């Protein structure tokens, strides 16, 4: 007996993203845009590289919020014959482009900081202090609203973490403004910009690495595939698991396919086994899309993790 069974839980659950959350994201994006513009203007007026760096950091938060909203909107588009997984990876591609741009911007920040450390320039401490303090309050207000609206959504939680990081960055700029007002020590401004640049670079690298892992079809970091195999084998009626593949379709959306060897039982019993496996995968590993091929005779796969080779085929199954 051989057959295929899969669920149709593609995309984002309807309950994951409320209308209030969508409005919150749009409001957060708009407010962050205002912060970026104000900090750029104030940074240029005050001669503060720290404010300009914080503007870049705020831009990353705006991008994070925008990607969360954009990914959700794209995920609502139906799958087609040309795009059988829909548009879930649109947000991943956008994130990769955004992160690459941030690396280039950070390089500029480091260059400017080096020049200013060699030849410190006067900085308007009061303007730096007031602007950074307003940015700090604005970021914390967005965090408070989104935390209440979407505590259960992984994309929003990620955006909230970005915002908390930027609130900390704004606090650092506030401190630099206080130092400049109290002591007139201008090098604190480029030093703070270097610290912010390092934070931006670290975040950008994390995004680049994760997006490349997704495009290379690596197993998700959040999923222990060996543990998945172990749990599948423990389910009643399962004799063996092989040819397993686990990958990421889009942000937080995981997929799995594998062969399940069972006894030569009725179709209704094999359906019961598959249903139990799917529920377990969704409950314990957050794998919402799974395709399970049930067999009563092994297809001849030579291991748990199949070595795909387009020149070879197993006797009973094409890879």
Molecular structure report:
The chain is α+β, with helices and mostly antiparallel strands and 319 residues long. It folds into 2 domains: 19-215, Cation efflux protein transmembrane domain (Alpha-lytic protease prodomain-like); 220-295, Alpha-Beta Plaits (2-Layer Sandwich), CATH 3.30.70.1350. Helices cover 61% and strands 12% of the residues. The chain is built from 8 helices and 4 strands. It has helices at residues 19-46, 49-75, 90-118, 125-149, 154-183, 188-215, 225-234, 267-285; strands at residues 2-6, 238-250, 253-262, 287-295. A 4-stranded mixed β-sheet has the order 1-4-3-2. Helix 2 (49-75) runs parallel beside helix 6, helix 3 (90-118) packs antiparallel against helix 6 (188-215) and helix 5 packs antiparallel against helix 6 (188-215). The protein is elongated. The two termini are 18 Å apart. Residues 2-17 have low confidence and may be disordered.
Proportion in β-strands: 5-15%
Residue ranges: pLDDT <50 for 5 or more in a row?
A: 2-17
Spatial gap, N to C terminus: 18 Å
How many domains comprise the coordinates? Answer: 2
What key phrases describe this protein's structure?
319 residues; alpha+beta; Alpha-lytic protease prodomain-like; Alpha-Beta Plaits; 4-stranded mixed sheet; 8 helices; disordered N terminus
Quick gist of this model?
This protein has 319 residues and is of the alpha+beta class.
How do the helices and strands line up, and which of them pair or pack?
Blueprint: E1 2-6, H1 19-46, H2 49-75, H3 90-118, H4 125-149, H5 154-183, H6 188-215, H7 225-234, E2 238-250, E3 253-262, H8 267-285, E4 287-295
Parallel strand pairs: 3-4
Antiparallel strand pairs: 1-4, 2-3
Helix pairs in contact: 1-2, 1-4, 2-3, 2-5, 2-6, 3-6, 4-5, 5-6
């Amino acid at each position: 007996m051989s057959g295929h069974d899969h669920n149709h839980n593609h995309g984002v659950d309807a309950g994951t993203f409320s209308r209030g959350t969508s409005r919150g994201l749009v409001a957060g994006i708009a407010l962050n845009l205002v912060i970026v513009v104000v900090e750029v203007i104030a940074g240029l007026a005050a001669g503060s590289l720290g404010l300009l760096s914080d503007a870049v950091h705020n831009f990353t938060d705006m991008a994070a919020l925008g990607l969360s909203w954009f990914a959700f909107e794209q995920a609502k588009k139906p799958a087609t014959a040309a795009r059988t997984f829909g548009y879930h990876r649109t947000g991943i591609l956008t994130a990769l482009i955004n992160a690459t741009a941030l690396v280039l911007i950070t390089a500029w920040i480091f260059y400017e900081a080096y020049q200013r450390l060699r030849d410190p320039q006067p900085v308007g401490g009061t303007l730096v202090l007031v602007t950074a303090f307003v940015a700090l309050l604005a970021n914390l207000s967005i965090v408070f609203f989104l935390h209440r609206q979407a505590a259960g959504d992984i994309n929003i939680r990620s955006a909230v973490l970005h915002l908390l990081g930027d609130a900390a960055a704004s606090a650092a700029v506030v401190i630099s403004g206080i130092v400049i007002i109290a002591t007139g020590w201008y090098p604190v401004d480029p030093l703070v910009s270097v610290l912010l640049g390092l934070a931006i670079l670290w975040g950008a690298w994390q995004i680049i690495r994760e997006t490349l892992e997704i495009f290379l079809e690596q197993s998700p970091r959040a999923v222990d595939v060996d543990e998945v195999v172990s749990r599948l084998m423990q389910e009643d009626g399962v004799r063996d698991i092989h040819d397993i593949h686990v990958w990421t379709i889009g942000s937080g959306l995981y997929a799995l396919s594998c062969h399940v060897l069972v006894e030569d039982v009725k179709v209704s019993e094999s359906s019961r086994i598959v249903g139990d496996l799917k529920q377990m995968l969704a409950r314990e590993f957050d794998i919402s899309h799974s395709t399970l091929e049930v067999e009563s005779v092994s297809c001849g796969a030579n291991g748990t993790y199949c070595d795909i080779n387009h020149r070879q085929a197993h006797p009973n199954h094409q890879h």
